[in-house]
Amino acid sequence: MAPAETTVSAETAAAGEAPPAFRFQVPPEFHAIPLGIGEDETGFAEQLRQFAHDYWGEDEKREPLRRLTAALYAANAEQLVAGGTVYSALGIFPMGGGPDGSEPPERVSRATLTVSVRDLENPDPHLTAAGIAEALDKAAGNGDAGEVQPIDLPAGPAVVRVTGSRAVWELPEGDQERFFVRIEVWLPFPDEDRVLLLCLSTPDVQDLFHYQAVLADIAYSVTFGGADAPVDAGAAGQTTVSPFTFY
């Protein structure tokens, strides 16, 4: 039996704004990263402290890493929220091993999921999706590599884009490079001048097909409306699995 997924609700795209609520489901391998939306400074700091503690574990020697992690995620959260992000999560997926858990996984794959709401003139979801696809196609033609595909979801017409990037770090021992893959789903709101953007990125490019299926499941679970539905308490208080658990 597959593990239960977590239902996440979002009713606020930014401070002072309240678009119609939407809901989506994420697999339990995703662990919510605090963004501080609706929290005071003290509450947000405590959420980040707990997140960093869960990530690195209780080893006292890792306290500097816990503090650094909390600081980095705090700075990143500010930028994400300013860009309309309403949900962010770290995915830790054990790969290989026994399907029933009888054998340990061969490795661990990681991915980051962000869900954001962006303002966009939206006279009709079908026209808007077509316009998004055309704009992304033109960007690809101008050197912004990526594959673009219009799709139909239960929540409406949408656009999928898969793109890659390369990062290079200049280190004393020589340059180091790493490649990333990013999967996006652009889904116009049914009757608002907004678009929902689901983004999943990972440095484990060999797991592209796996993450395409993961994001497809999330995208197919999106529903709009239901503003009176309560937010699942588990979405904000999931227990984060330490990546060291599988080593």
Task: Write structural notes for this entry.
With 247 residues, the protein is an alpha+beta fold. The model is unreliable at 12-19 and 227-247 (pLDDT under 50). A hairpin with a 2-residue loop joins strand 7 (156-171) and strand 8. The longest helix has 20 residues, at 63-82. It contains five helices and ten strands; from the N terminus they run E-E-E-H-H-E-E-H-E-E-E-E-H-E-H. Helix 1 packs across helix 2. The strands form two sheets. Strands 3-4-5-9-8-7-6 form a seven-stranded antiparallel β-sheet, sandwiched between helices. A three-stranded antiparallel β-sheet has the order 1-2-10.
Shape: globular
Q: Average pLDDT across residues?
A: 81
Strand content: 25-35%
Strand order of the largest sheet: 3-4-5-9-8-7-6
Number of strands: 10
Structural class: alpha+beta
Radius of gyration: 19 Å
**Count of separate DSSP helical elements:** 5
List the secondary-structure elements in sequence, H or E: EEEHHEEHEEEEHEH
Distance between the termini: 25 Å
Largest sheet: 7 strands, antiparallel
pLDDT < 50 runs, ≥5 residues: 12-19, 227-247
The helix content is: 25-40%
